[in-house]
Amino acid sequence: MKYFRMAAAVMILSAVPTLLFSQIKPLDAVLSGYQYPFEVHYINLKSQNNDLKMAYMDVQPQKSNGKTIMLLHGKNFNGAYWEKTAKDLSEKGFRVIIPDQIGFGKSSKPQSYQFSFSQLAQNTKAILDQLKIDQAIVLGHSMGGMMATRFTLLYPEKVQKLILENPIGLEDYKTFAAYQTIDQAYQSELKNTAETYKNYQLKFYYDNQWKSEYQPWLDLIAGWTLHKDYPQVAWDAALTSDMIYNQPVCYEFKNIKVPTLLIIGTRDRTAIGKDRAPKELQPKMGQYQELGKKTQQEIPGSELVELDNVGHLPHIEVYPKFFSALYNFIK
Questions:
Q1: Cys-Cys with 205: which of 6, 44, 122, 312 at CB 3.0–4.6 Å?
Q2: What angle do the packed helices 230-246 and 6-14 form, to 10 degrees?
Q3: What is the pLDDT of residue 49?
Q4: Residue 121 has pLDDT above 50, yes or no
C-alpha cells in the first residue's frame, strides 16, 4: 500500500542534519523502547475488523477521596506528559486514569480505521467499564478537549465534571481553511522532523521561547520520525487530522450539562489548517483570548480561568497556575 512506501521517508530523513537528532532516539510505532512514568496496562478491543490494544495508566491515590479523574492527551502528545499532574492528583486522593488513544502513544496504529471522536470516546469508555468506574472527572487538553467534549455529550452519566485545557476545536476550521485530502496530509506528515516539530511548537505553543522542560515531549514525536515504523504513525496522524477538521464540536457546546471549567492560555494561536486559509483569515484563527470567553458563554454555567501570556500547554509551561485552577474546581 502506498502509505507503506519507505523510500520517500528515507529520503526525507537523510536530508535532515545528523546533529539535529544526536540526542533523540528512534522510537517504534508503539513506543516499546520508551518507559512511561507509571505502569502501563492494556485493553483488547475488537473495532472495525481490527484487533487493537489500547494502552492506559491507572495511578492509584495515596489516600482515596473516592473520586476518579481521566486525563486525555492532545494530538502531538501521549499520556506520559501528564506525569506531574497525575502525581499531584494522586497525592490529593484522586485515582487517575490516563489513556493513550488508538493511533497514539503505546496504543495500536491501525492502518485501516475510520477515526472519529465518537469511536475514540467509545474506546475510552471501554476502559472505564473494564475498571468498573461508574463516573469520572474528565480533563482534555488540545485534541483531548474535543475528545472530552464528545465523550461528555455521548456519556453524560459517566462525567462528574469536565475540564477543557486549551482545547482545539473552539472554532470550525472548515469555515477558514481549505480541505486537505488524507493523501495530502500523509505526505505532509512524512516530511516532519525534529526541526519542523520544534518550529511549529515554538510558533504556536511557546512564543519562540524554548525551555528544557519542553524537550522530552518533542523527543517523543521526533523519535518516531527516525524509525522505520514512521509511515504507520504518519498515516494515523493524517487520519486524525482529517477527523479534527471534519468533526467540529463547537456547535454542541450548548448541550453540555455537566459542571465545566475552561483553562485557557491566552497567548495560544493553535488552529488546524491555518497555513491553508486565505492570508486575510489567518490572523483571525486560534485567537484563544477571544475563543475562551466565547466558549464560556456557550457552555451553560461554565467557568473560565484565563492564564495571561501562556501558550498551548499550561500544564507544562506554567504548571503551578494550571494545577491551582484545576484543583480549585475539583476538590
A1: 312
A2: 100
A3: 97
A4: yes
Domain that holds residue 155: 2-330
Distance between terminal CA atoms of the chain?
A: 51
- The answer to whether residues 220 and 198 touch, using CB atoms and an 8 Å cutoff, is no
Q: Total domain count for the chain?
A: 1
Q: What percent of the chain has pLDDT over 90?
A: 89
Helix, strand, coil abundance in the chain, percent, nearest 5:
45, 15, 40
Nine-digit cell string for 55 = 494502552
Radius of gyration of the chain (CA): 19
Q: How far apart are CA 216 and CA 144, in angstroms?
A: 19
Q: Residue 297 is part of a domain; what is its CATH number?
A: 3.40.50.1820
Q: In which residue are the cell numbers 464528545 written?
A: 150
Alpha helices, DSSP H, located in 51-140: 83-91, 117-130
Nearest-angstrom CA–CA distance, 13 and 67: 46
Give, to the nearest 10 degrees, the angle between helix 182-190 and helix 6-14: 40
Task: Name the pairing type of β-strands 136-141 and 68-72.
Answer: parallel
